[in-house]
Amino acid sequence: MKVFVTGACGFIGSNLIEYLFKKNIKVVAYTYYNSHNSIGLLKYCDKKIINKIKIISGDIRDFKRTKSAMKGCDSVIHLAALIGIPYSYHSPESYIETNVNGTYNVLESSKDLGLKKIILTSTSEVYGSAKYTPIDENHPLNPQSPYAATKISADSLGLSFYYSYNLPITILRPFNTFGPKQSMRAVIPTIISQYLKNKNNIKIGNTHTIRDLTYVEDTSRAFYLALKSKKNNILGETINLGTSYGIKISEILKIIEKEKRTKLNIIKDEIRVRSKNSEVLKLISNNKKAQKLLGWKPILSGKNDFKKGLMKTLQWYQKNSFSYDVSKYII
After folding, report:
1. Structural domain tally of the chain?
2. Global pTM?
């Protein structure tokens, strides 16, 4: 098996490649081309991994380049996307080009090349504010941001290729994933970075939102299980990935205070506060479908396990000096 991973230079992508390498899966890592020849977050991977995998730079929006890079692979895990919700308010067209057109390029290339397995990555943001919890896959879709709208479009496009062309497509829908190497745009690295730099002054947006936070190794394992599955019952299916445990952002801050025996000074940053109609207040997953179809349950689940994952994440940022001015990443 040789799998083509788009978005390999990102948070989940770089962690997933480490996981697949440990499972002896051959990988072609598709990274976003830049003039600095940077491989993004893959640079934090062990050098023996970088030396063993094939890395190809390109742009998911470029059909010819993407199709050419996919040749020789029999599977694809499509992670590449623009993900920052606040920036989607300012530049929705760029999200359409990357998240929708980019997904089309992967689907069309997969069809032309006859790939045996296609795994698309969705997001819990497609559900919007919960009508009920825990949220199962039948929950109504409610795009409360341009980002969410493009991900719904990409999911629908994927399903249309399954029904129209019988493409072997599975959609995995992670709820909030956290762990080492995550961008400062996400809430946990935002908190950790400021804690490591300032020790007590934390600028943050809404602390009352509730999120279902899955440690990135658990998320990676779900992708691996979907990739290796020989069951046809996962084809054409959308599967939630989450712990089924929700935690308030304010509680995350309290855990750090308790574990580090410190007192944090919380400063509300209005720039980070989403508008009332766009804010998603509560996201908690129902992961029974993942249990049934993939045999997947998160290893780290519940408050005590979340605390373990949070401390592992904090230690990684501390060790790698992955701390910088979060004010540069507000949108």
Report:
1. 2
2. 0.92
